[in-house]
Structures are given as C-alpha cells and as structure tokens.
Amino acid sequence: MKMKISESTQLVLRNFANINQSLLLKPGNRISTMSVMRNILASADVEEVFPVEFGIYDLPRFLGNLSIYPELEFNDKYVLMSNGSKTYKFMASDPSIIVHPTTTFAMDDSEHNAPDAKEAPEYDIDVTLTGPALSTIAKVASINSLPDYALMTEDGVINFVALDKKSDTSDLAKEPVGKSDADFKMFFRAENLKLVEGDYNVRVSRHKISTFRHQTKALQYWVTLEQDSEYNG
Predict the structure, then answer these.
(1) φ/ψ of residue 41, rounded to 5
(2) Structure confidence by residue, pLDDT tens digits, 39-49
C-alpha cells in the first residue's frame, strides 16, 4: 500500500537526523531515535502508520529522495519511492548497524507507549521554556561560542543560562524562567539540545536526566545532564 509522509512528520525526521543520521522505523506510528553517544533519546507519535520494521542508515539521503519521490511503498528489504511513473528503490539497512533505542521512556499522555516502556525518574525541577527563550539563548550561545546551557538558581529565581562552565571569566546570558527554594546548577551541553522549534515543558531530575516535552506536538526528548550538575533541595 502506498503512503505519503506529511510535512509535520518530515519536520520531526529532519530534526531526528540531527540527533542520529540513522533511524530504525518500527511498525506503528511511534518514531524514536537515540544519539550515537546514547545521551539523547527522542520519541514522537505521528499520523502515519509504518507497516514494517525498516532500517535507514542515511536519513538525510532518504529525506532528500523523499523530496523527489513523495509516494512510498514499504517492503521488508526496500521501500519503493515514486512520483507518478518515476521510481527509486531505496534499500533497507541491517538494524544491527544502527544505534537505536531497544526500550524507551513512556511519553506523557500517549496511548502508544510500548508495554516495556520505562518510567522516567521523579523530577525535581519543572519549568516552561518558550520558543523565543530557547531561540534567544541559542543565538547568543552561537554568537559568543558558549558551549553550555544551564538551569540554575539565584536568589530564588530559576534562570536559563548560556555560558562556558569551564571558564571562571565566561560571558553569561540568562533568562528567568521560574522560581525555586532549592539551590541547583544543572548543566547541558548546548550541542545536545537539538529541538524542534516551540514551547516546552522541561523537567529535570537530581539524578541528571531531563525531559523536554513539546507543548503542541506529540514529541518528547530525554537528555542526560553533565556530571558536574549539582542539586541541593
């Protein structure tokens, strides 16, 4: 049966290609990926239902071909991509050469979680990061070559910060995002926050795991924090 992939799903796939250039599609409408370093996990529920398990070793190349051949017919060993009478046979890759999650965390408020999906640790910090806040901090970090982000408290205010945590004389950009009686400095590598644009509910555990849940899409990321993160509740 032929199918097309919606623009919203292609947006997710392009984003996931920034996390890992390979992807293992599973039957159903849940797409999940994991970074090669295994410190970023992302899942999305999409409108398409994929019929078979299908390994894509080079996701950017697959998406490039999809822009030319928008109709897909999946088989176990290949997907036949077509545009009218024009076709392209894209071969499946062996799942064993693709870094992929064997189990995932349960997505919030989803009916499509696998029976073996893990529950994330209890979270200690809960804030909202708006799209403009994320965009501004990312732009400042890029302009000033600041490699780290942080959620940290100062006088009871939680700030979202861009900095170089290895430098005592680092420039520092901050934006207030909440309040807390706890004292913490929770660090992320800027390169690990590869998010689809939008507003996010962000929760962070003292056990150095965080989740970023998109507020309007069925899309969620789990990102490991840096080991020098500190939480004193």
Answers:
(1) -125, 140
(2) 999 999 999 99
- Beta 148-154 vs 157-163: how paired, if at all? antiparallel
> Which residue in this structure is represented by tokens 């795991």?
209
| pTM across the whole model | 0.94
Which among 206, 191, 55, 61 has a CA at the least distance from the CA of 125?
206
Which structure tokens are listed for 40? 């970023």
Please report, for the chain, the start and end positions of each structural domain, with discontinuous segments joined by +.
3-97, 125-232
How far apart CA 83 and CA 68 sit, in angstroms, is 7
Classified by CATH at the fold level, domain 3-97 comes out as Proliferating Cell Nuclear Antigen (3.70.10)
Residue 222 · residue 140 · CB < 8 Å = no
Q: Which fold has domain 125-232?
A: Proliferating Cell Nuclear Antigen (3.70.10)
CA 15 remoteness from chain centre: 7
Which pLDDT score is estimated for 120?
81
Q: What is the pLDDT of residue 119?
A: 85
Question: What is the spatial distance between Cα 41 and Cα 196, in angstroms, rounded to a whole number?
Answer: 14
The per-residue b/e assignment along 68-97, b for 16 or more CB within 10 angstroms, e otherwise, is ebeebebeeeebebbeeeeeeebebbeeee
Q: What percent of the chain has pLDDT over 90?
A: 89
pLDDT digits (tens, 9 = 90+) for 170-187: 999 999 999 999 999 999
* Six token digits for residue 50: 């994929």
Fold: same for 3-97 and 125-232 = yes
Tell me the one-letter amino acid at 233: G
- Phi, psi angles (nearest 5°) of residue 49: -115, 110
Of 38, 41, 42, 225, whose CA–CA distance to 150 is shortest? 225
